[in-house]
Design brief:
By secondary structure, the protein is an all-alpha fold. It contains 11 helices and 2 strands; from the N terminus they run ααααββααααααα. β1 and β2 form a beta hairpin. α1 packs parallel to α5, α1 crosses α9 and α2 crosses α9. The protein is globular, with a radius of gyration of 20 Å.
Length: 295
C-alpha cells in the first residue's frame, strides 16, 4: 500500500521510531508538568529551564569532576530537584493563596534568569556530551540502523513514566498526595506534614525534568536554549492530554511523538505544527483535554 503512495516501508518505520524517541522526551517532560499541576495547581513555566539544567549538570559533572553518565543520571536529577525544593520553599509557597497567574509569572521569570545565567557563562554554542561507552554502536533492524543509546532512551522513559504513575495512583504515598490536593486540612489532621509533601512533590517534578535533560545531553547540543525550544511543545502535549492527568501526559506524549513522525513522512511541511493543530482541535471539542476532568 505504501509503495502505491510512493513511500518506502523503511522510511515509514524509521520515522515512526524517531517519533517514538521524541515522544519519550515529551512523555517524561509532560509527566513532570502534570505531576506539579495536578497535585499543586502550579503551571511550572520553569520546567524547560530545569530540563536544560539537568543537561548542564551532567556536562559539568563530566568535565569538572570526571563523573560519567551513569552516576550523572542519578546525581543531576537530585541537584535539579534540590533547586526545585528551594524554589518552592522560598518563593512559590508564598503564592498559593493568590491567583494561579502569579505562579506562572514567577516560574517564567525563573526560567528567563536561569537561561540568561547559563548563556552568560557558556554562550549559545552547543557543548558536546559523549554517549556512554556501554551504549555505543547500534542494531541493524533491516529498515534502519537503530543506535543503542536511542533505544535506551525509550526504555528509560517507559520505566520512569510507569514507575511514577504507579507511585501516584497505586501507593499509599500517592493517595496522601492526591488527598492533600483536595483537602489539605483533613490530611494534616492525620499528622501528615502537608507543606513538606507539597515541597517534595515540586522537587520530584523538577527532578523528572532534570532526568530528561541528562537523557538528552548525548544526542542534543547542551545549550541554554534547549529548554525553551522544548517547553512550548511539551505544554501543548499536557493541554491535549489534560492538565494534571498523569496517564494523559504519558499516553499523549508517546502518541504525539508517533503522529509527528507520521507527519514527517506524509506531509513534512506540517511536522512542526501538527501538535499545535491537534491542540486547537482538542480545545474546541474537549477543552479539559483527552484525559482531563471538567472543572
Amino acid at each position: 500500500m505504501f509503495e502505491l503512495l510512493g513511500i518506502a516501508p523503511q522510511v515509514l518505520m524509521g520515522q515512526l521510531l524517531l517519533g517514538l524517541i521524541n515522544g519519550s522526551f515529551y512523555a517524561v517532560l509532560s509527566l513532570g508538568l502534570a505531576v506539579i499541576f495536578g497535585l499543586l495547581n502550579i503551571i511550572n513555566f520553569a520546567h524547560g529551564a530545569q530540563y536544560m539544567m539537568g543537561a548542564f549538570v551532567a556536562w559539568m559533572l563530566l568535565n569538572y569532576l570526571g563523573i560519567g553518565y551513569w552516576p550523572a543520571l542519578i546525581l543531576a536529577p537530585l541537584v535539579v530537584g534540590a533547586t526545585g525544593v528551594l524554589l518552592e520553599k522560598l518563593a512559590l509557597s508564598r503564592l498559593y493563596k493568590l491567583d494561579h497567574l502569579y505562579g506562572l509569572l514567577l516560574t517564567f521569570g525563573v526560567a528567563v534568569i536561569l537561561q540568561g545565567f547559563f548563556r552568560n557563562y557558556y554562550g549559545i554554542s552547543g557543548l558536546p556530551y559523549q554517549i556512554p561507552a556501554a551504549m555505543a554502536g547500534g542494531q541493524n533492524l533491516g529498515f534502519m540502523f537503530l543506535p543503542n543509546y536511542r533505544a535506551w532512551i525509550v526504555v528509560a522513559s517507559v520505566i520512569v513514566c510507569l514507575g511514577t504513575w504507579f507511585m501516584i495512583e497505586k501507593t499509599r504515598l500517592g493517595a496522601y498526595l492526591r488527598a492533600a490536593t483536595e483537602n489539605p486540612a483533613l490530611v494534616g489532621a492525620f499528622g501528615i506534614n502537608v507543606p513538606r509533601m507539597i515541597t517534595l512533590t515540586y522537587g520530584f517534578g523538577a527532578a523528572l525534568a532534570g532526568f530528561a535533560g541528562v537523557l538528552a545531553a548525548p544526542i542534543y547540543a547542551v545549550n541554554p536554549n534547549m529548554g525553551a525550544d522544548m517547553i512550548i511543545v511539551v505544554f501543548a502535549v499536557v493541554v491535549i492530554g489534560g492538565m494534571g492527568s498523569i496517564i494523559g501526559a504519558i499516553i499523549t506524549g508517546y502518541g504525539l511523538g508517533l503522529v509527528e513522525g507520521l507527519t514527517r513522512v506524509f506531509y513534512p511541511e506540517g511536522s512542526a505544527v501538527v501538535i499545535f493543530v491537534i491542540m486547537a482541535i482538542v480545545l474546541l471539542v474537549k477543552p479539559e483535554g483527552l484525559f482531563g476532568r471538567a472543572a
